[in-house]
Amino acid sequence: xxxxxxxxxxxxxxxxxxxxxxxxxxxxxxxxxxxxxxxxxxxxxxxxxxxxxxxxxxxxxxxxxxxxxxxxxxxxxxxxxxxxxxxxxxxxxxxxxxxxxxxxxxxxxxxxxxxxxxxxxxxxxxxxxxxxxxxxxxxxxxxxxxxxxxxxxxxxxxxxxxxxxxxxxxxxxxxxxxxxxxxxxxxxxxxxxxxxxxxxxxxxxxxxxxxxxxxxxxxxxxxx
Length: 224
Hints:
Number of domains: 1
Number of helices: 6
Structural class: alpha+beta
Shape: globular
Number of strands: 9
Largest sheet: 5 strands, mixed
Order of helices and strands: HHHHEEHEEEEEHEE
Strand content: 15-25%
């Protein structure tokens, strides 16, 4: 598997050197997506075996099996998650199903002692570095607390927001869509999200975001 590299300082200079003249927010974001995705050069497609190797030493197969057998969200006989319909026509219901599923995985396998929280970020504003007026709104994020994370600082905010979330205090972000609605532009979004996380978390070594549908998962892993 080709290693995907990103350097926040290099990308920051690229963004600064390629600011679009037009001040329209959507054009600025489109340019950031273009630069971020171009920096990836080529995104390889790999099978599930490669993904398994990424996390080979994180948790044992037996622990995963025990979790799946005990979980009411998984049909071990059929080998599939319950509640995730492969012919889903309701995007909101799909989002809710995955929120419940990810919460269960974190609680059952994460061993994070309450430092991780699944957050619906469809209406949130995760502001970009060097472009205070620009923001992204991933479908879902894993909000994190601990020494490597910090609450986002909002410019000109009259007071601290309740339960603030930004690229500075997320462990990962997800795009959740129906198969019928997915496009390559969604991968562009993941590239932007990952790089913004690197910008806000300067000690971050890896960043992995997911595009999830009712039948498949696409992982975009980046390394600083």
